[in-house]
Amino acid sequence: MISQWSRRSPWPAALLIVVLAALLYGCILSFGYVWDDSLLFLDKTALLNEPLSWSLLAEPVLPGTTYMRPLVFLTLFGEFHLFGQSPVISHSVNLALLMANALLVFAVCRRLALSTGREHGNERALLAAVLYILHPALVESTAWVSGRFDLMVTLFLLLGVAAYLAPGLRSGWRLVLVSAAMLAALLSKELGAVLPGVLLCVWVACHADPAEPPLRTFGRMFRCNAGLLLVLAAVLAGYMLLRVRSMGAAYHYALNTDYVRQAWIEQLLPLEALKFYAMQILLPFHAVGPLHPANELHPHDFASLSASLFVLGGLLALLVLAWLKRTAATWLALAGLLCLLPVMHFVPLFIGGNIGHERFLTAPLAFLAMAVVLVRWEVLFVRWSLSAQAGRRILALAGLGWAVLAAWTTHGILPFWANELQLWNWAYHAHPNFKYARYNYLYGALKESRLHLVDKEIERLQKEQSGLDVDVQLLYANALVRSGNEESLKYLEGIMFALPKFHEQADGRERIDHFLLTAMQMGGVYADYASALMVFRGEAAEALKYNRIAEWYLRESEKIPVRYQRVAILYALGDFSAADVLYHQQELFYYPRKDAMRLGVVQILSRYCEIKGAADVACWEAAKRGLIPATDGAPRPSASNG
Questions:
Q1: What's the pLDDT tens digit per position in 518-550?
Q2: What's the predicted TM-score (pTM) here?
Q3: What is the CATH number of domain 421-641?
Q4: Residue 621 and residue 612: Cα distance in Å, rounded?
Q5: Which key words are in the record (predicted)?
Q6: CA distance linking residue 423 with residue 295, whole number of Å
Q7: Residue 633: pLDDT above 70?
Q8: DSSP notation for 423-478
Q9: Do residues 199 and 164 touch, judged by C-beta distance below 8 A?
Q10: Does the pLDDT value for residue 466 go beyond 80?
Q11: Are 579 and 570 in contact (CB under 8 A)?
C-alpha cells in the first residue's frame, strides 16, 4: 500500500516526515534558553539593541576564538526584531530547520536512488529521512537554540548537494546555486568547507563503474568537476580573506609539534573521537548527553585499544570497499565521515575538554542515513547464504528494533533540555568528577534561585576536598550575596586577591581571553563585591569603584546589569540626577531580565538605607521620591547627617 501511493507522488511521504518531526520534537516549543544561549545572545544583548552591521554579525562566537558564524546571527537578529526574544519562537525556528533538513534528506536520497538505479526510491528516501529524524544525536542541535549553527550548516550542505544533482539545470545556474550554498554554509559554520569533498563523493556514488579501473574513475571525476571545483576554491579563498580580516587570524589555535605529540600520539584523541562517534552513530542509546569528558577516557587500556583497533579496522574496510567497489553506499558513508573530519582533533578544538558532541553529527548523519538505505542488501544476503525472504525479515526486525530504541531514547532525553537546572543536573550526575559539569549545575541552580541546592553541593565539596575551585567559589559567593550572608565578602576578597589585575595592565585586553576564567566571570566577581559592599557595609563610594572595574571586563552589550547596579550606587551617593539619566538610558535597551534589574536597584538601595538609617540624606530623598519604602515618622535629616 505504501509502495502504491509513494510511487505516484513524493508529497505524502514529505507530509509524513513533517508530522513525525512535529510529534517527536513538538515539546521543545515549551523549552527555555539553556547553556551557551546566555553567553551568545541573552547576556550579550547587541543583537537586540544595536543596528544591523557586519561587525555585529561577525563578532567571534566565543571570546578568544575565531569562530565566525554571521548568517546564524543574522537569523537571530531578524527573529528578535520581528518577534522579540522568545524561546518559543527560537525553538520553532530550530524545529523548522530540522524538518527542512529531513525533507532534503528525502529529496536528495530519492534523486540518488533514481541515479543509481535503485527500486522503490520513495520508500528508500522516506526510510532515510525517518532514520535521520529518530536518531537521538539530533536532540542537542534541535532542542538547544545555539545548536542552530549545526542545523543551518547541514541545511546548506544538503541544498548544495540538491542543486548539484538537480536534473535539467543549466551548468551556469548549477555553479551559481552550489557556490551560493557553499558560501551560506561557511557563513553558518566552518564545516561548510567540506562541501567540495562531499560533492565528489556524491559524484562517485552516482557515476562510478565498478568495472572501470579506480584511477580512471577518479581522473574522470576531477575532469567532470574541474570547473565547479575551481569556482568553489575561489569561494573558499574569498571566505578565508573575509575571515582573516574580520577575526584577525584564520584560526585561534596553532597546529604545532607539541599538539601533535600530546593529542595525536600520547592521548590518541583522533582515534578516541573516531570510537566515540562510531558508538554514537550506531548505538546511541545509553551515553547521549551534553558532555563527554576526554579526561574520563583511558586510551591505552587493553579494552580501549582493542576497541580502537576494531573501529579502525572497520574504517579501513570501508576505504578499501570504496576504492575497489565504488558503491553508492560506501561513498555516501565517506561523505558522512568527511563531515566529521573537522572535529576529529586533528586540529585543536575549543569544546570544553570534551572528546566530542552529538550536535557535530547533524550533518554526517544525513549522508549516513542515505548510505544505509542505498546498500544493496540483496547482494549481502547471497554472500551470507540467506534467502531473500529471510534476509529481508532479519533486516526489517533489526531496523525496527533500532528505530524503536532510537525513538524511545530521543523521547526520553528531550525533557532534560527544558531548562538549565534539568540539563546540568542530568550532566553532573552522569559526570560527577567533571568540573565543567559541576560549575554549570551550580550555575543552573543559581539561575533557578534554588540556593539550597548550591548550599548542599558546596557542603559536600568542602567535606570531600581541601578547598573549592575558583569558579565554584565565585558561584558560592554569589549565592551568599543573594541569601544575605556577609561571609560572601571574604570569599569575594579571596577571589579578587587570586585574580590577575587585568584592568591595571597595559595589555590586559589581549591577555584576558587566555585566562582560566572568562572576562564575564571576572567582571561578575567585581560586580558581586560591589553589591556586597552596599548591602553589608553601606560603602557606596567603594562600591562605585568596583562597579567600574566590573564594567571594564564586559563587552558593551554585556554591561546593562552593572549599569543598573550603578544606578543604585549613585542614588546612595546622593547623585540623583546622574542616577536618573543612567536609569532612563538603560530603559531604552532591551534586556530579558530587566524586571529583575529594576527590582535589584530597589533591593540594593533599600538594604543600604537600612544600614545607614533614615537620617541619611540620600536615603531620605530616595524614600521621598518613592524609590524605596518610606520609614514612618522619620525626620528630615540635616545636610550634616548625610
A1: 899 999 999 999 999 999 999 999 999 999 999
A2: 0.93
A3: 1.25.40
A4: 13
A5: Membrane, Repeat, TPR repeat, Transmembrane, Transmembrane helix
A6: 21
A7: no
A8: HHHHHHHHSTT-HHHHHHHHHHHHHTT-HHHHHHHHHHHHHHSSS--HHHHHHHHH
A9: yes
A10: no
A11: yes
